[in-house]
């Protein structure tokens, strides 16, 4: 529950402290779904394997408006592992090692340890009312 509250705060309040161009993850709310690969323990091999699994299905990520970020225990990184212009702060306990999916509404939709099959996330998203409405509007459903 505490982690869920943390991410809701993160989405709505994220303010950059190191970069004047920093953006809040909240600016992505209602536009994108977010996957955060939590790697605070520093097991980059496991994180990179998870990242590779997602990169292999890039078109499906784009179709579902998914953005991927990695958290290394100190800072938020983009999918290409460069420092993100989005910031994360107020991190207390982030020993969790795995995947967190945030919906377009900013809510935590999935929290599972590595590895998570991309298809599991796609199935979860495709069952969400907002996604079904998107598919209906696009004529794909």
Radius of gyration: 15 Å
What best-fitting shape do the alpha-carbon axes yield?
globular
Content of β-strand: 15-25%
Biggest pleated sheet: 5 strands, mixed
Secondary structure class reads alpha+beta
Give the mean pLDDT. Answer: 83
Which strand order spans the largest sheet, edge to edge or round the barrel?
A: 3-2-1-4-5
Low-confidence stretches: 5-20
At CATH level 2, the architecture is: 3-Layer(aba) Sandwich
Task: Report the oligomer.
Answer: single chain
Description:
With 141 residues, this protein is an alpha+beta fold. It has one domain (2-138): Glutaredoxin (3-Layer(aba) Sandwich). The protein has helices at 2-13, 44-55, 58-63, 118-126, 129-138, and strands spanning 33-39, 66-71, 76-78, 97-102, 108-113. Strand 4 (97-102) and strand 5 (108-113) form a beta hairpin. It is globular. The N and C termini lie far apart (34 Å). The relative contact order is 0.20.
């Amino acid at each position: 529950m505490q982690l869920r509250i943390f991410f809701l705060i993160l989405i709505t309040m994220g303010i950059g402290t190191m970069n004047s161009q920093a953006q809040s993850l909240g600016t992505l709310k209602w536009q994108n779904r977010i996957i955060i690969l939590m790697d605070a323990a520093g097991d980059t091999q496991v994180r990179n394997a998870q990242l590779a699994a997602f990169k292999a299905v890039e078109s499906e990520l784009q179709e579902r408006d998914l953005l991927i970020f990695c958290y290394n225990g100190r800072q938020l990184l983009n999918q290409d592992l460069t420092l993100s212009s989005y910031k994360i702060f107020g991190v207390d306990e982030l020993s969790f090692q795995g995947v967190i999916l945030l919906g377009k509404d900013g809510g935590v939709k999935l929290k599972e340890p590595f590895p998570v099959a991309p298809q599991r996330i796609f199935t979860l998203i495709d069952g969400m009312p907002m996604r079904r409405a998107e598919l209906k509007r696009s004529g794909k459903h």
